[in-house]
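Researcher: I'd like a candidate sequence for this fold, 294 residues long. If you have to choose between options at a position, lean toward the conservative one.
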Protein backbone atom coordinates (compact mmCIF):
# COMPACT_ATOMS: atom_id res chain seq x y z
CA UNK A 1 0.00 0.00 0.00
CA UNK A 2 1.33 3.44 -0.94
CA UNK A 3 2.28 5.86 1.82
CA UNK A 4 0.58 9.23 2.06
CA UNK A 5 3.42 11.02 0.28
CA UNK A 6 3.66 8.39 -2.48
CA UNK A 7 -0.09 8.42 -2.91
CA UNK A 8 0.04 12.19 -3.39
CA UNK A 9 2.76 11.81 -6.05
CA UNK A 10 0.79 9.06 -7.78
CA UNK A 11 -2.32 11.26 -7.83
CA UNK A 12 -0.29 14.10 -9.33
CA UNK A 13 0.90 11.80 -12.14
CA UNK A 14 -2.71 10.75 -12.80
CA UNK A 15 -3.79 14.39 -12.85
CA UNK A 16 -1.04 15.26 -15.36
CA UNK A 17 -2.18 12.37 -17.56
CA UNK A 18 -5.74 13.75 -17.57
CA UNK A 19 -4.40 17.22 -18.40
CA UNK A 20 -2.68 15.79 -21.49
CA UNK A 21 -5.88 13.95 -22.47
CA UNK A 22 -7.96 17.11 -21.97
CA UNK A 23 -5.43 19.09 -24.05
CA UNK A 24 -5.71 16.56 -26.87
CA UNK A 25 -9.51 16.77 -26.71
CA UNK A 26 -9.24 20.56 -26.94
CA UNK A 27 -7.01 20.44 -30.03
CA UNK A 28 -9.21 17.85 -31.74
CA UNK A 29 -12.47 19.60 -30.94
CA UNK A 30 -11.28 23.03 -32.07
CA UNK A 31 -9.02 22.19 -35.03
CA UNK A 32 -10.69 19.10 -36.47
CA UNK A 33 -14.34 20.09 -36.05
CA UNK A 34 -14.95 23.75 -35.12
CA UNK A 35 -12.39 25.47 -37.35
CA UNK A 36 -13.54 24.09 -40.74
CA UNK A 37 -17.24 24.40 -39.81
CA UNK A 38 -16.97 28.22 -39.51
CA UNK A 39 -18.68 28.94 -36.22
CA UNK A 40 -17.46 30.18 -32.84
CA UNK A 41 -17.83 28.11 -29.67
CA UNK A 42 -18.66 29.87 -26.44
CA UNK A 43 -16.15 31.48 -24.09
CA UNK A 44 -12.55 32.37 -24.83
CA UNK A 45 -12.40 29.52 -27.36
CA UNK A 46 -14.89 31.48 -29.41
CA UNK A 47 -12.93 34.73 -29.09
CA UNK A 48 -9.74 32.93 -30.14
CA UNK A 49 -11.45 31.27 -33.08
CA UNK A 50 -12.85 34.57 -34.35
CA UNK A 51 -9.50 36.33 -33.97
CA UNK A 52 -7.81 33.53 -35.87
CA UNK A 53 -10.25 33.97 -38.75
CA UNK A 54 -9.67 37.74 -38.79
CA UNK A 55 -5.88 37.80 -38.27
CA UNK A 56 -4.90 34.38 -39.70
CA UNK A 57 -2.79 33.85 -36.56
CA UNK A 58 -2.95 30.31 -35.19
CA UNK A 59 -5.51 29.91 -32.39
CA UNK A 60 -2.81 28.41 -30.17
CA UNK A 61 -0.87 31.68 -30.05
CA UNK A 62 -4.05 33.68 -29.47
CA UNK A 63 -5.17 31.38 -26.65
CA UNK A 64 -1.82 31.84 -24.91
CA UNK A 65 -1.98 35.61 -25.31
CA UNK A 66 -5.46 35.76 -23.74
CA UNK A 67 -4.93 33.24 -20.94
CA UNK A 68 -1.48 34.23 -19.65
CA UNK A 69 -2.65 37.59 -18.19
CA UNK A 70 -5.68 35.87 -16.67
CA UNK A 71 -3.47 33.20 -15.11
CA UNK A 72 -1.14 35.81 -13.65
CA UNK A 73 -4.14 37.52 -12.08
CA UNK A 74 -5.47 34.18 -10.81
CA UNK A 75 -2.18 33.41 -9.04
CA UNK A 76 -3.03 36.02 -6.43
CA UNK A 77 -6.62 34.92 -5.81
CA UNK A 78 -6.99 31.19 -6.49
CA UNK A 79 -5.25 28.08 -5.16
CA UNK A 80 -1.81 27.51 -6.64
CA UNK A 81 -2.74 23.98 -7.73
CA UNK A 82 -5.64 25.35 -9.78
CA UNK A 83 -3.41 27.90 -11.50
CA UNK A 84 -0.60 25.40 -12.15
CA UNK A 85 -2.94 22.79 -13.64
CA UNK A 86 -4.70 25.40 -15.77
CA UNK A 87 -1.37 26.80 -16.95
CA UNK A 88 -0.11 23.36 -17.94
CA UNK A 89 -3.34 22.70 -19.84
CA UNK A 90 -3.17 26.07 -21.60
CA UNK A 91 0.43 25.53 -22.73
CA UNK A 92 -0.02 21.92 -23.88
CA UNK A 93 -3.32 22.53 -25.69
CA UNK A 94 -1.93 25.67 -27.38
CA UNK A 95 1.21 23.82 -28.52
CA UNK A 96 -0.95 20.99 -29.87
CA UNK A 97 -3.08 23.49 -31.83
CA UNK A 98 0.07 24.98 -33.35
CA UNK A 99 1.50 21.56 -34.23
CA UNK A 100 -1.65 20.13 -35.86
CA UNK A 101 -1.80 23.14 -38.17
CA UNK A 102 1.87 22.87 -39.12
CA UNK A 103 1.58 19.17 -39.97
CA UNK A 104 -1.71 19.79 -41.81
CA UNK A 105 -3.61 17.39 -39.57
CA UNK A 106 -6.97 15.97 -40.68
CA UNK A 107 -10.03 18.26 -40.52
CA UNK A 108 -13.65 17.23 -40.82
CA UNK A 109 -15.02 19.18 -43.80
CA UNK A 110 -18.53 18.52 -45.08
CA UNK A 111 -20.99 20.98 -46.56
CA UNK A 112 -23.86 18.52 -46.16
CA UNK A 113 -23.19 17.43 -42.57
CA UNK A 114 -21.89 20.52 -40.79
CA UNK A 115 -24.07 19.68 -37.79
CA UNK A 116 -21.90 16.62 -37.16
CA UNK A 117 -19.11 19.06 -36.34
CA UNK A 118 -21.44 20.82 -33.88
CA UNK A 119 -22.32 17.55 -32.14
CA UNK A 120 -18.78 16.16 -32.09
CA UNK A 121 -17.13 19.36 -30.89
CA UNK A 122 -19.77 19.87 -28.19
CA UNK A 123 -19.19 16.38 -26.78
CA UNK A 124 -15.38 16.52 -27.04
CA UNK A 125 -14.99 20.01 -25.58
CA UNK A 126 -17.54 19.26 -22.85
CA UNK A 127 -15.55 16.16 -21.86
CA UNK A 128 -12.36 18.24 -21.90
CA UNK A 129 -13.78 20.82 -19.49
CA UNK A 130 -15.26 18.18 -17.18
CA UNK A 131 -11.91 16.38 -16.91
CA UNK A 132 -10.16 19.60 -15.89
CA UNK A 133 -12.83 20.49 -13.31
CA UNK A 134 -12.62 16.98 -11.82
CA UNK A 135 -8.89 17.25 -11.14
CA UNK A 136 -9.17 20.76 -9.70
CA UNK A 137 -8.16 22.87 -12.70
CA UNK A 138 -9.90 24.52 -15.62
CA UNK A 139 -9.59 25.15 -19.35
CA UNK A 140 -8.79 28.81 -18.76
CA UNK A 141 -10.57 31.86 -20.08
CA UNK A 142 -14.05 32.39 -18.68
CA UNK A 143 -13.54 29.65 -16.08
CA UNK A 144 -10.61 31.57 -14.57
CA UNK A 145 -12.69 34.73 -14.30
CA UNK A 146 -15.62 32.76 -12.86
CA UNK A 147 -13.44 31.05 -10.25
CA UNK A 148 -11.87 34.35 -9.14
CA UNK A 149 -15.32 35.94 -8.80
CA UNK A 150 -16.64 32.85 -6.97
CA UNK A 151 -13.77 33.05 -4.50
CA UNK A 152 -14.43 36.72 -3.74
CA UNK A 153 -18.23 36.58 -3.94
CA UNK A 154 -19.37 32.96 -3.31
CA UNK A 155 -23.00 34.04 -2.96
CA UNK A 156 -23.25 35.21 -6.61
CA UNK A 157 -25.03 33.12 -9.25
CA UNK A 158 -21.86 32.89 -11.32
CA UNK A 159 -23.35 30.41 -13.80
CA UNK A 160 -25.81 33.02 -15.05
CA UNK A 161 -23.00 35.53 -15.55
CA UNK A 162 -21.00 32.97 -17.54
CA UNK A 163 -24.03 32.23 -19.73
CA UNK A 164 -24.61 35.92 -20.48
CA UNK A 165 -20.93 36.39 -21.38
CA UNK A 166 -20.98 33.33 -23.65
CA UNK A 167 -24.12 34.48 -25.47
CA UNK A 168 -22.55 37.91 -26.04
CA UNK A 169 -19.55 36.22 -27.67
CA UNK A 170 -21.83 34.08 -29.81
CA UNK A 171 -23.79 37.17 -30.88
CA UNK A 172 -20.59 38.96 -31.90
CA UNK A 173 -19.68 36.02 -34.12
CA UNK A 174 -22.30 37.22 -36.60
CA UNK A 175 -19.99 40.09 -37.56
CA UNK A 176 -17.16 37.62 -38.23
CA UNK A 177 -18.99 34.82 -40.05
CA UNK A 178 -21.77 36.97 -41.48
CA UNK A 179 -24.68 34.55 -41.20
CA UNK A 180 -27.35 33.46 -38.75
CA UNK A 181 -26.57 29.77 -39.23
CA UNK A 182 -23.21 30.20 -37.49
CA UNK A 183 -24.96 31.67 -34.44
CA UNK A 184 -27.49 28.82 -34.33
CA UNK A 185 -24.64 26.31 -34.60
CA UNK A 186 -22.80 28.04 -31.74
CA UNK A 187 -25.86 27.95 -29.48
CA UNK A 188 -26.49 24.28 -30.27
CA UNK A 189 -22.84 23.46 -29.63
CA UNK A 190 -22.94 25.21 -26.24
CA UNK A 191 -26.01 23.21 -25.22
CA UNK A 192 -24.38 19.93 -26.26
CA UNK A 193 -21.21 21.05 -24.47
CA UNK A 194 -23.12 21.56 -21.20
CA UNK A 195 -24.93 18.22 -21.50
CA UNK A 196 -21.65 16.36 -22.09
CA UNK A 197 -19.86 18.17 -19.28
CA UNK A 198 -22.66 17.63 -16.76
CA UNK A 199 -22.93 13.95 -17.68
CA UNK A 200 -19.28 13.43 -16.79
CA UNK A 201 -19.58 15.50 -13.62
CA UNK A 202 -22.52 13.23 -12.68
CA UNK A 203 -24.82 16.13 -11.95
CA UNK A 204 -25.98 19.53 -13.10
CA UNK A 205 -24.56 22.83 -11.98
CA UNK A 206 -27.15 23.64 -9.36
CA UNK A 207 -26.86 23.90 -5.61
CA UNK A 208 -26.05 20.73 -3.67
CA UNK A 209 -27.27 19.64 -0.24
CA UNK A 210 -24.55 17.72 1.59
CA UNK A 211 -25.08 15.72 4.76
CA UNK A 212 -21.91 14.89 6.66
CA UNK A 213 -21.65 12.40 9.50
CA UNK A 214 -18.44 13.04 11.40
CA UNK A 215 -16.65 12.70 14.71
CA UNK A 216 -15.24 16.23 14.32
CA UNK A 217 -18.32 18.41 13.76
CA UNK A 218 -16.92 21.68 15.05
CA UNK A 219 -13.69 21.46 13.04
CA UNK A 220 -15.55 20.38 9.89
CA UNK A 221 -18.13 23.14 10.37
CA UNK A 222 -15.35 25.73 10.67
CA UNK A 223 -13.80 24.46 7.42
CA UNK A 224 -17.13 24.87 5.62
CA UNK A 225 -17.66 28.39 6.92
CA UNK A 226 -14.08 29.61 6.43
CA UNK A 227 -13.23 27.87 3.15
CA UNK A 228 -16.56 27.43 1.34
CA UNK A 229 -18.16 30.57 2.81
CA UNK A 230 -21.47 28.83 3.50
CA UNK A 231 -23.29 28.08 6.71
CA UNK A 232 -24.01 24.70 8.25
CA UNK A 233 -26.39 23.12 10.74
CA UNK A 234 -25.35 20.41 13.22
CA UNK A 235 -27.89 17.86 14.46
CA UNK A 236 -27.55 14.92 16.87
CA UNK A 237 -27.81 11.32 15.75
CA UNK A 238 -27.15 7.75 16.90
CA UNK A 239 -25.37 5.06 14.92
CA UNK A 240 -27.80 2.18 14.33
CA UNK A 241 -25.12 -0.52 14.40
CA UNK A 242 -22.85 0.81 17.16
CA UNK A 243 -25.36 2.78 19.21
CA UNK A 244 -22.76 5.56 19.48
CA UNK A 245 -23.73 9.23 19.42
CA UNK A 246 -22.92 10.97 16.15
CA UNK A 247 -23.19 14.46 14.73
CA UNK A 248 -24.59 15.29 11.32
CA UNK A 249 -23.71 18.51 9.49
CA UNK A 250 -26.15 19.75 6.88
CA UNK A 251 -24.98 22.38 4.41
CA UNK A 252 -26.00 23.66 0.98
CA UNK A 253 -23.21 24.71 -1.36
CA UNK A 254 -22.65 25.52 -5.03
CA UNK A 255 -21.87 22.55 -7.24
CA UNK A 256 -18.48 24.01 -8.16
CA UNK A 257 -17.58 23.69 -4.48
CA UNK A 258 -18.46 20.00 -4.21
CA UNK A 259 -14.93 18.87 -5.04
CA UNK A 260 -13.62 21.34 -2.46
CA UNK A 261 -15.90 19.82 0.17
CA UNK A 262 -14.64 16.33 -0.64
CA UNK A 263 -11.06 17.56 -0.30
CA UNK A 264 -11.88 19.11 3.07
CA UNK A 265 -13.29 15.76 4.22
CA UNK A 266 -9.85 14.18 3.84
CA UNK A 267 -8.77 16.13 6.91
CA UNK A 268 -11.47 14.22 8.81
CA UNK A 269 -10.99 10.55 7.81
CA UNK A 270 -13.92 9.21 9.86
CA UNK A 271 -16.42 11.34 7.98
CA UNK A 272 -19.16 10.12 5.65
CA UNK A 273 -20.80 12.40 3.08
CA UNK A 274 -23.84 11.98 0.91
CA UNK A 275 -25.36 14.71 -1.22
CA UNK A 276 -28.25 15.51 -3.52
CA UNK A 277 -29.03 18.10 -6.12
CA UNK A 278 -31.18 20.96 -4.85
CA UNK A 279 -33.72 22.29 -7.35
CA UNK A 280 -34.36 25.51 -5.48
CA UNK A 281 -33.02 27.56 -2.59
CA UNK A 282 -34.81 30.19 -0.51
CA UNK A 283 -33.59 31.91 2.62
CA UNK A 284 -30.11 32.12 4.14
CA UNK A 285 -28.02 31.10 1.12
CA UNK A 286 -26.04 34.36 0.90
CA UNK A 287 -27.53 35.66 -2.31
CA UNK A 288 -26.19 39.09 -1.32
CA UNK A 289 -22.90 40.12 0.24
CA UNK A 290 -24.73 41.52 3.26
CA UNK A 291 -26.21 38.11 4.06
CA UNK A 292 -24.55 36.19 6.87
CA UNK A 293 -23.54 32.53 6.68
CA UNK A 294 -25.95 30.73 9.03
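Model: Candidate sequence:
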Amino acid sequence: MLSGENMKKFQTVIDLFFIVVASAFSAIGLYVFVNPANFAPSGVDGISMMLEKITKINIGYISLAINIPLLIMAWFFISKKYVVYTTIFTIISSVMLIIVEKIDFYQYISKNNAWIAVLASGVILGARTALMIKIGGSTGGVDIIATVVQQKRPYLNIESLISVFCYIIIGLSFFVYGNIESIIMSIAQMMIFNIAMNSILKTTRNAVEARIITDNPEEFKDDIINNLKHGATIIDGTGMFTGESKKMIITIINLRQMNDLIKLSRKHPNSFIYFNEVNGVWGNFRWKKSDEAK
